[in-house]
Amino acid sequence: MLEIAILGLLNESPMHGYQLRKRLSELLGAFRAFSYGSLYPSLRRLQEAGWIDEQAPLEAPPGGAGFGSRSKRGKRVYRLTAEGKEHFAELLAQVGPEAYEDEGFGTRLAFFAQTRSDIRLQILEGRKQRMTEQADGMRSSLARTRERMDRYTLQLQEHGLESADREVRWLAELIETERGTPRAGE
């Protein structure tokens, strides 16, 4: 999912590493932990694949990089290549389980504005089905083991079930809204 996030952000505009790192934290922070150590190796892999390239570094101001700065080196600016744009579109068109599992769903949702309506609908429906199955499993497990749980474990399990049920309702609303949205080109 980090690949989709990087390509999606660079599809919006070219960025240097620090900007990209900051935007990734904003984007992925709510959905999962983001390791800063994974950004630059990912950027190298994307460059090697030909999906991103570097623009000429921004020049440091004369006399240094600025007040209090120790670096005189320009910042590398990454941008999406034409092949990268095609690859990103292909990634957004994929609708397999990775698009609606916990780790991938949030990232995919963050780029729904760049995703075709029919693909968005398939992802939302897949996520809703997955969350409904999860809630049903939790409900069944809770019914079998309720008597053996202490009150704190019981409250934790009930909270998890309420969260899953709330997400199913939210997804149902998104699906209803999506079905009312005209498809691209209509």
TrEMBL record:
Residues 6-89 form the Transcription regulator PadR N-terminal domain. SUPFAM superfamilies: Winged helix' DNA-binding domain. PANTHER family: CONSERVED PROTEIN, PADR-FAMILY TRANSCRIPTIONAL REGULATOR. This is PadR family transcriptional regulator.
